[in-house]
Amino acid sequence: xxxxxxxxxxxxxxxxxxxxxxxxxxxxxxxxxxxxxxxxxxxxxxxxxxxxxxxxxxxxxxxxxxxxxxxxxxxxxxxxxxxxxxxxxxxxxxxxxxxxxxxxxxxxxxxxxxxxxxxxxxxxxxxxxxxxxxxxxxxxxxxxxxxxxxxxxxxxxxxxxxxxxxxxxxxxxxxxxxxxxxxxxxxxxxx
Length: 191
Description:
Elements: H1 2-10, H2 17-29, H3 34-41, H4 46-62, H5 71-77, H6 84-103, H7 107-112, H8 115-130, H9 135-149, H10 155-166, H11 172-189
Helix pairs in contact: 2-4, 3-4, 4-6, 6-9, 8-9, 9-10, 9-11, 10-11
């Protein structure tokens, strides 16, 4: 049964990259298991849920076609995730979705993403920017918000304030992405 098999695969003892890639490939080879993977991502069993988000990240980075039919489930549950291990891959998925939507102009993603999804990404990314999250989550949120701000005019001024407030105390990664994002905002607003 796929259910038991997926649960076993998500219960791996070590989080090696290759192990995660192998499980992601297993899911892609069995697309019928994707709904179950998504369910595991949002379960209260934190160990299984954050491991499932790691696999979800790899699956989505390989091809968003698996996630697109399930965007409502993904975005309805996204604001409820707070565990660092799960927030980081979900923030990366949001970033990559916005890059595909605004920069790459992927028709499948443009047709699937609705205004309510953009609102959820905006809300979650701003929450992640101002709460005690790991740097990677904040870095992914910056780029997602930058792209959303090319459509929604109030986002860039708010994002700029947050970055400028925290850039001096931030890590090297935060400073680098923050500087890049501020430059992009400036370029966009001088067009």
